[in-house]
Amino acid sequence: MSSYQQLPVAFERGAGVWLTDQNGQQYLDALSGLGVCGLGHAHPEIEEAIADQAGKLLHTSNLYHIPLQEALAERLTSLAGMDKVFFANSGAEANEAAIKIARLFGHQQGIDHPVVITATGSFHGRTMATLSATGNSKVQQGFEPLVEKFVHVPYNDTEVLSRLTDANVVAVMLEPIQGEGGVVIPDEGYLKAVRDICDQNNWLLILDEIQTGMCRTGEWFAFQHEKISPDVMTLAKALGNGIPIGACLAKGIAADLIQPGSHGSTFGGNPLASRAALAVIDVLSKQKLHMKAAKLGAEMLARFKSELSEIDGVISVRGKGLMLAIELDRECAQLVNMALQEHLLINVTSENVIRLLPPLIIDDDIAQQIIAKVVRIVKVFLKEE
């Protein structure tokens, strides 16, 4: 089906930060497959883990204990300060589990029509429930009627949230940084204020860390920048470095709401996906890549600001760790093709925001190559060169 507007290139293999197309041409990947390949392509330790596991066991189903899944749950809950995990196959599925937890929580509180608060500009997935939770009418168009009981409030605005009086509200669901919405970074203290509001009202705080998690922003999870803890957190993308896996973590009362028969997944947490994710965590931990993302990301952000901030047409240069954005004053989707001509892979989101999600394994030289190429095409696009 015509689901995608695909670019005129097809890749045959990858190595680290590089992809090679069918004609043998190399491209510098500054997008990581939309934040998935945080360790780059064909990472030797991930390759070895996947190949070894494929020769042992791929699937048994969740009718039986899966030791690798249990080991992965132990690692994730320890890193995140959570209690339990439900494993799925994607970010949308992880968010579906989070929404179901919120509704179970509401019914346990005697609320027949539980409401989940989400933010305008958010993106939580393309299933019917996650699409309804998403605060973007453009991606919802044509799929009405939407799933009920989602209310959208302005992002980075606690005043509106604190004035809500609907007794049916049971949870607030947010991205710590809005990725698809344009790499929108809230004010310092925003998440803590939301945490406090949730505590005051007996609401669950659900954080969608699908794009920000797994060391991308300079911490293992973005909520750790503010020293808070959510009740529910979702992961996917970089957790498997290309192997499909999603995870919904919960703590406290939220961790015990899903019981046998209330939710499930045929493939979720299978031995192959769990082994891959364990290998990813091992590499991230051994190489302290959260620290590298923080340091190198700050350096790249400073360089981008130095090169672009004073140029007419550039509204904002922003980032957190290796999640970087350049916002222009006009639509700029054509920059993706311009970058492709420079053998560079980037993305434009929210129509006028250049989004960069380079692999966490990049070094200073690769970082400088990305900066030089992006600065050049932006200046050409804005007719500064």
CATH architecture of the largest domain: 3-Layer(aba) Sandwich
Name the CATH homologous superfamily of the largest domain: Type I PLP-dependent aspartate aminotransferase-like (Major domain)
Characterize the quaternary organization of these chains: single chain
Helix amount: 25-40%
- N-to-C span: 40 Å
Instruction: Estimate the global geometry from the Cα principal axes.
Output: globular
Could you list the spans in which at least 5 consecutive residues all have pLDDT below 50?
Answer: none
Number of domains: 2
Please state the structural category: alpha/beta
> SSE order, as H and E?
EEEHHHEHEHHEHEHEEEHHEEHEEEH
Q: What's the arrangement of strands in the largest beta sheet?
A: 4-10-9-8-7-5-6
| Strand fraction | 15-25%
Specify Rg, calculated over alpha carbons. Answer: 21 Å
Strand segment count: 15
Helical region count?
12
Report the major sheet. 7 strands, mixed
Mean pLDDT: 97
CATH top level assignment of the largest domain: Alpha Beta
In CATH, the topology of the largest domain is named Aspartate Aminotransferase, domain 2
